Amino acid sequence: MTATNAGPQQALREEIIADAKLHAERVLGHARQEARNLREKSRQEIEEDTRERLEAARRNAQNRRELLLASVILEASRRRGARTEAVLQGVLDEARRRILAREGFDYREAVVRFAAEAIGRMEGTRFVLQLSDADRQAIGAGLAEEVARRVGREGLQVAVDGAGAKIDGGVIVRDAEGRQVWDNSLLARLGRFWPILRREIAARTSLAGTAGKES
């Protein structure tokens, strides 16, 4: 009986084993495919992450370059502006020195012109010229009459104030009632004309485009 059943049992066992092997191969094949899929997915994710990191690094590097370039341009502009201001300040200081030293011009003629110019822009016929104590003594004689002739207004009366003005030179003109005052002292005139002068200096030199914009 055992021998009789050996054939079918053996066949069944072999069939079961074959089915198991086939199932195992399918499972293993599926596992291998999943593993390949996972490796491919991981590779793609790694590549994507790498690309994103590289792009982020590139953007950061570009931003740093732009910031550095902007800072360099700003610093260069600041230094150029500082040098420009130093040059212009030197010009202003030298102009102030020469004006106060009365260098290169007829000082009395300048005072006459300053006074006549002021009176010509003011209403009335009676005016007082205020000079520094030194100028009142040095050029005060005959100054009022000369200024009146220079203006040429009918009925004009001009006098030199007996008290000295606290100025470094030039003239302050006021009407007799004190309602109108025109400060044509040397430094006051320089202060009024300096913005125009610095633009002209810039326009005629390599400082153009810096000092001119700032004024």
How would the blueprint of this fold be written?
Elements: H1 2-100, H2 107-120, E1 126-130, H3 133-139, H4 143-151, E2 157-160, E3 170-175, E4 181-185, H5 186-204, H6 211-214
Parallel strand pairs: 1-2
Antiparallel strand pairs: 1-3, 3-4
Describe this structure in words.
This protein has helices at 2-100, 107-120, 133-139, 143-151, 186-204, 211-214, and strands at residues 126-130, 157-160, 170-175, 181-185. The chain is an alpha+beta fold and 215 residues long. It has 2 domains: 1-101; 107-190, 2-Layer Sandwich (hypothetical protein PF0899 fold). Strand 3 (170-175) and strand 4 (181-185) form a beta hairpin. Mean pLDDT is 86; it is low at 211-215.
Summarize this structure as a short list of keywords or feature phrases.
single chain, 215 residues, alpha+beta, hypothetical protein PF0899 fold, 2 domains, four-stranded mixed sheet, 6 helices, disordered C terminus
Order of helices and strands: HHEHHEEEHH
State the secondary-structure class. Answer: alpha+beta
Number of helices: 6
Quick one: biggest sheet?
4 strands, mixed
State the separation between the terminal residues, measured CA to CA: 124 Å
* Fraction of residues in helix: over 70%
Number of strands: 4
Overall average pLDDT: 86
Shape: rod-shaped
What is the number of independent domains?
2
The portion of residues forming beta strands comes to 5-15%
Tell me the Rg in angstroms: 49 Å
Q: In what order do the strands lie side by side in the largest sheet?
A: 2-1-3-4
Uncertain segments are 211-215
What's a concise summary of this model?
The protein is α+β, with helices and mostly antiparallel strands and 215 residues long.
